[in-house]
Amino acid sequence: LVVGDHTVDELLKMGVVEALSFRNTLIINGKPIPYNEGINPRTAIGQKQDGTIVLLVIDGRRGIKQGATLEEVENILLQRGVVNASNLDGGSSSTMYYKGKVINRPCNWDGERTVATSIYVEP
């Protein structure tokens, strides 16, 4: 998982063949990036030192849970051994689908929201 701000030329030199762009980079080489943002539903992707990918979705806004700040997301990921991470699209886009069903409570009143980009993982 390559995180941070990079030009196309830099990514090509690193051997990257596929890329997605997100804001905010949360953790680079085990160091959290400071942010002062509010509480919202969040979706994040991270990678541990051994290459394991970690996906995190935090619900919010529906009276069930409040959501999380970016700092709280960083802390959760760091506690799980993540060394590189990015915040993905959050809010009503924060949906986790696993084994044939949505396993979180998206804040969109109509259930999960149609999105342009998804991360799909196969075993």
UniProtKB/TrEMBL annotation:
Residues 9-121 form the Phosphodiester glycosidase domain. Pfam families: NAGPA. This is Phosphodiester glycosidase domain-containing protein. It comes from Clostridium botulinum CFSAN001627.
